[in-house]
Design brief:
By secondary structure, this protein is mainly α. The protein has helices spanning 3-8, 14-25, 29-51, 55-69, 79-98, 117-128, 132-143, 148-155, 159-177.
């Protein structure tokens, strides 16, 4: 489990999460509800920076996909990796739908402390200017802390593509930042 994943389940031990997954897979709706409650902030942190104003909708769709497909999860230990893939795909899908249409500012309050609102606003503005493919690689690499290989696995693209997208994304982010 990465540090970011661990942040969301500090009060959950792996056996409890495994029991929730197994219960949800058996059709226990209370276990599923608890599991979705645990996953909701994690999914939101992936979808928000990528899908921007459509982040809540992308997160909801990702959670629906988790709900509908939980029986396909082979191992409870793979929960966060499996959810990460679903969330990233939904976020990119929503972001691509939005391309070319006007965007409105997104709330990033859980990204920064109140005293950092100007910084959060500047980051949000720079991220908004990036293509969805660039936002997702930056989010997975720098927010989620995944390696380039892990990002490639999540997005099902070659590592070289991840590297080139990261290079372009960082360059575009710096340009937008200045």
């Amino acid at each position: 489990m990465t540090e970011v994943e661990n942040r969301y389940v500090t009060d959950r031990d792996p056996e409890v999460l495994a029991a929730l997954v197994e219960g949800a897979q058996r059709g226990d709706l209370l276990a599923m509800d608890e599991l979705l409650s645990v996953l909701e902030p994690y999914v939101g942190r992936i979808c928000g920076p990528v899908a921007l104003q459509d982040g809540p909708d992308a997160a909801q769709e990702a959670l629906i996909a988790v709900f509908c497909n939980i029986r396909q999860l082979k191992s409870p230990a793979a929960l966060f990796g499996w959810v990460r893939v679903i969330a990233a795909r939904e976020a990119v899908k929503f972001a691509k739908r939005r391309q070319g249409r006007p965007t409105v500012p997104v709330e990033w309050e859980d990204r920064a402390h109140p005293e950092d609102t100007l910084l959060a606003s500047d980051i949000a503005d720079a991220m908004r200017r990036l293509a969805p493919e660039h936002r997702v690689v930056l989010t997975l690499r720098h927010v989620e802390g995944l390696s380039e290989q892990e990002v490639a696995d999540v997005l099902e693209i070659p590592v070289g593509t991840v590297r080139s997208r990261l290079f372009r994304a960082r360059r575009s982010f710096r340009t937008a930042w200045d």
